Task: inverse folding
């Protein structure tokens, strides 16, 4: 089982991105055995209902974040998913306040699993949110392989270039590229990971 962890702050577009990603994996790459693991801080999730209604197998971890309060439950949940469903890929959507590197380290240390980290940032709200939460954003984006400046269609070219510049300062090793809901996901960047 391979794991792709999708991170990013609240409202960055993770669920919409996962819908497009799962569709691409099934329709274009022929990867039919996919499970999506939703992590929400609240007791209920709208996102898992959206993903489930689209026909995807969705499991959930609620009432806490898997990088801190639910860190102990994550390995057992993943073992259960592997035992019951044995997916080729597990796509995990972290909460909007999670540190993806912490989740990755937990999986590596407890289960021996490595995972790929892909993060989204909201290009439209980036400057305002970054001023208030630079520390959080820095921890969210560290160690990501791919970072998508989402909602690129809602900002001008100058703003988008500044968002990408700032993101690259936080994580110079990541590939950073714009994306938006009404365009296809950048498969050229994702497919080398998904086909491995």
Result:
């Amino acid at each position: 089982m391979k794991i792709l962890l999708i991170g990013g702050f609240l409202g960055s577009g993770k669920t919409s991105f996962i819908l497009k990603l799962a569709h691409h994996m099934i329709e274009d790459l022929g990867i039919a055995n996919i499970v999506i693991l939703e992590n929400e801080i609240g007791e209920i999730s709208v996102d898992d209902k959206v993903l489930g209604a689209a026909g995807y197998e969705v499991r959930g971890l609620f009432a806490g974040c898997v990088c801190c309060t639910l860190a102990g439950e994550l390995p057992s949940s993943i073992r259960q998913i592997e035992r019951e469903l044995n997916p080729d890929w597990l796509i995990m959507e972290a909460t909007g306040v999670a540190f993806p590197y912490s989740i990755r380290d937990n999986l590596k240390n407890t289960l021996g699993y490595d995972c790929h980290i892909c993060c989204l940032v909201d290009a439209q709200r980036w400057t305002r949110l970054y001023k208030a939460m630079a520390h959080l954003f820095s921890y969210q984006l560290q160690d990501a392989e791919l970072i998508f400046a989402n909602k690129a269609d809602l900002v001008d070219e100058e703003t988008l270039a500044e968002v990408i510049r700032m993101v690259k300062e936080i994580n110079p090793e990541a590939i950073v590229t714009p994306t938006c809901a009404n365009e296809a996901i950048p498969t050229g960047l994702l497919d080398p990971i998904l086909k491995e």
In short: Residues 41-51 have pLDDT under 50 and may be disordered. The beta strands are 2-8, 34-39, 57-61, 89-93, 116-122, 146-150, 175-178.
